[in-house]
Structures are given as C-alpha cells and as structure tokens.
Design a protein that fits this description.
The complex is a heterodimer. By secondary structure, chain A is mostly helical. Helices cover 84% and strands 0% of the residues of chain A. Chain A has one domain. Classes of the chains: A mainly alpha, B mainly alpha.
C-alpha cells in the first residue's frame, strides 16, 4: 500500500513538473511541428510506404527527445532526495508510467499534425492511431530504461540514440509491418493479431527487465 | 612453455579444421563449388561470437551479484573478442555472398543494398551495433565502479532484447540465407555427414581459440589494474 502511494505521488509529481516547466513541454511540441514542417517541405507528396516509414522515424526521434529529459533533468540533489524517500522499483515504474503518458500525448499531436501536413493515405485512421499508440508504448518503455542507463554517462543525448537504435530495430520493423494493415494491405488470417501479441510480450519483458535491473543503477 | 589441455586441444582441432577443411572431400554442388568449405570458417565465427557474448553476459550478471572487479574485466574482454569474431564472420560471409548472391553483371558492392536486408545479416548487425554501443558506453563513464555497474546493466538488457529479435526478424522478411527456420548447420538434415566430421570440431576449435585470446586479454588487463584488484 505504501509503495502504491509512493507510486501515485511520483507520477503526480512528474505530471506537475511537466505542466509547470512549460518550456520543455512547448519545446517538445515545437520540435514535432518543425520536424513535420521540414518533412512537408522536403518530400511534398509521399506514397503510403514512405509516409509510413517517415511517421515511425519521427515517432522514434520524438520519443528519444521526450524520454531522454526525464532522467537528464533530474538534478543530483533531487535523485538523492528520491533515494531517501522511496524504493527503486516504485521509482522506475512511476518514471515508466509518466513517460508513457507523455509519449501518448506527443503521439496524438504528432499524428494530427502529420496527417494535416502530409495527407492521410490510411484506409482506417482509427486503427492506425491504435497501432501508433501501441508503438509509442513500446518505444517509451525501452527508451526510459536506456535514459536511466545513459544518465550515468557523459554526452547523454547522443549516447541514448547509439544505445537504443540496435535494440529498437525489431520493434520498429514489427510496427511498420503492422501499420500496413491500416493501409488496406491484405494480411494472412490472424497475422496482425500475432504481431500485436508479440509487441505486447516484448513490452512486458522490457518492464520486467527494468524492474530487475534498475536497482543496480539506482545506487551511486 | 606449459599449455593447459584445452589450449592444446584448440591447436589440434584448428589444424584439423584448416587442413581437413581444405583437403577432405565435400559434396559437389554447382551453386557453391569449392566455396562450400567456407562453412568451416564462416559459420564457426558466428558460433564463437555467440558463445563469447554469452560468456560475457554471464560475467556481467556475476559482477552485479558480487561486484568483484575481475568479472567486469572478463565481461569486457569476452565482448571484445566476440565482436572481433563477428567482424571476421562478416568478412568470411562477404566472400561467400560475393560468390553466390551478388549480381554477376554488376560490381559486388552494387549488390550490397539488397544483401544487407537479409534477416540473418540484420541480426548480426544488431549484435555488433549493440556491442559497439557497449564499448562507447564504457568509455564515456569515468568512475570505475559506476562504469562496471552501468555497462553490466546495459549488457544484460541488450542481450536479452537481442534474442527475441533474432527469433522475430527472420519471420518478417524473406530470406535467401540457409537455415530459415532456426539455426543453419545445426539441423542434421542440412549438412552432409562428411562435412559434419570437420564442422563440429572446427566450431569447438574456433570457440576455444576465442576463449584463449580473451584469457590473454584478461591477464594483461588484470596486470594493468593490479593496484585496484
């Protein structure tokens, strides 16, 4: 029960911080808007395949930027304070939850702007949105753990990309494949469901690994 | 000079693998010709790489359990030799691919773009990128204990994420590489009996050689870090 209260308080703190330090939230939104505007001006009319690939690449970079700061903005003193009031498992779970929520918001903004500028080649917009939310869940889980690792090193932001890209490849490939089901591409019976289950299984295993491994990163 | 039994075994096995590999009879396949003998080198490199990476992660787990600095040195050295084996695996695979897959009408590098999309090659590239990142991570942390701990965590995290991927990706993409369903050369029907006679000793020989190189690196490193061990 105490762990649950801690968890709630920590998630609330993250959301409050996000809302109060508005420069970082608006910064993220501007990042999305300018990325999409650059894409809009450079590629113009994109075919469905390229539209899809570029969407996931923007998701990837938004996730790196949104999640990276969750650990990087923690001052040394504040980590010490967290250390004295709560446990590592609660802390990482709270971080994961708040990052997933943040990434969901960014995902919606990204999707809306993206379709506004680059058109909407999907045949089922809602299922594409569902797939993109599933994708941002997986991305933010993996990158939360990597941000925790990278926050211990120098040049954290670029290090996160180096550490993350090889690990995220299979998930991105699965997501690109899955989102083709929203482009009226014909799939074998049950294949999309299989991919969804695989992604969920991967997400669960990442959470497990984070819970097991984070206590070792926690102590300084 | 005294060598322990497994080092002698490694020397004998590798002599057998190289001499036998080039001279013993092999099945005649028009697609492969004599490049079929590359099996004794190319596939063994990947086996050795995976074995060395596995040993590396075992030492990472051991480090997190008892924070003995020696385990950190071992994890790093095994990962280094494993990466080296992986690069050799790419090199030997390149010889094979340029003979079998590359478009004969174009220069070999023109086929690179289509060859790299092979699931097995993606898996191997992921493994090498992960360990490249592992070394970058190590070099960007100054504090010794922290470096050991953080890199051990990344080693375990990345390795456990790598395995599902190696299993998933081949099922997403078409492949020309042998061994579509599982591991090439492990399947008994895939490989000729005559070749098995050389192949299995060769795997063992190359893996032992990798362990040997790693053990030398560990000794050098532990002498260098003598004052803190």
């Amino acid at each position: 029960m105490r762990a649950y209260n801690h968890f709630n308080a920590l998630v609330k703190k993250e959301i409050l911080l996000e809302l109060r330090q508005q420069h970082s939230l608006y910064g993220m939104m501007l990042y999305i808007a300018s990325t999409i505007f650059v894409l809009y001006l450079t590629i113009g009319d994109a075919e469905a395949e390229i539209w899809n690939a570029l969407f996931w690449i923007t998701q990837l970079f938004i996730c790196i930027n949104a999640v990276a700061k969750s650990f990087l903005q923690e001052a040394k003193g504040r980590m010490l304070y967290h250390y004295s009031i709560t446990g590592p498992t609660t802390f990482i779970l709270a971080k994961i939850t708040s990052n997933v929520l943040l990434m969901f918001v960014m995902n919606i903004i990204n999707l809306v702007l993206y379709t506004a500028f680059l058109g909407d080649p999907t045949s089922s917009y809602l299922s594409f949105m569902g797939i993109s939310l599933l994708g941002s869940l997986g991305l933010s889980l993996v990158f939360t753990m990597l941000a925790a690792i990278a926050s211990k090193a120098m040049q954290q932001a670029s290090l996160m990309a180096i550490l993350g890209f090889p690990i995220i490849i299979p998930q991105l490939m699965l997501l690109v494949k899955l989102s083709k089901s929203a482009f009226s591409e014909i799939f074998r019976e049950g294949a999309p469901l299989q991919i969804v289950l695989l992604l969920v299984a991967l997400d669960i295993s990442v959470v497990f690994l984070a819970v097991i491994l984070y206590p070792f990163l926690w102590k300084d | 000079m005294k060598l322990s039994w497994w080092k002698i075994l490694s020397i004998i096995l590798l002599f057998y693998a190289v001499i036998g590999g080039f001279l013993l009879p092999v099945p005649e396949l028009s697609q492969l010709g004599e490049t079929i003998r590359n099996l004794y080198f190319h596939v063994c490199m990947w086996f050795a790489m995976m074995i060395l990476f596995t040993v590396s992660i075992v030492h990472s787990i051991k480090y997190l359990r008892n924070t003995n600095f020696m385990h950190d040195i071992k994890a790093k050295s095994y990962a280094q030799v494993g990466t080296y084996m992986g690069l050799l695996g790419y090199l030997t695979g390149g010889i094979w691919a340029s003979f079998t897959w590359a478009d004969p009408n174009n220069p070999a590098y023109a086929s690179f773009g289509s060859i790299m999309r092979e699931p097995k090659l993606i898996g191997a590239a992921m493994a090498l990128l992960i360990y490249g990142a592992y070394f970058i991570l190590r070099s960007s942390i100054k504090d010794m204990d922290q470096r050991a701990r953080v890199s051990a965590v990344y080693n375990i995290f990345a390795y456990t994420m790598l395995f599902p991927s190696i299993w998933i990706i081949p099922r997403l993409l078409p492949s020309l590489h042998p061994g579509q369903e599982g591991n090439p050369a492990l399947n008994f029907n895939d490989i000729d009996a005559r070749m098995r006679m050389v192949f299995y000793p060769a795997v063992l020989g190359w893996a032992l050689l990798g362990v040997w190189i790693a053990s030398l690196k560990i000794r050098i490193e532990s002498i260098r870090e003598k004052n803190i061990l």
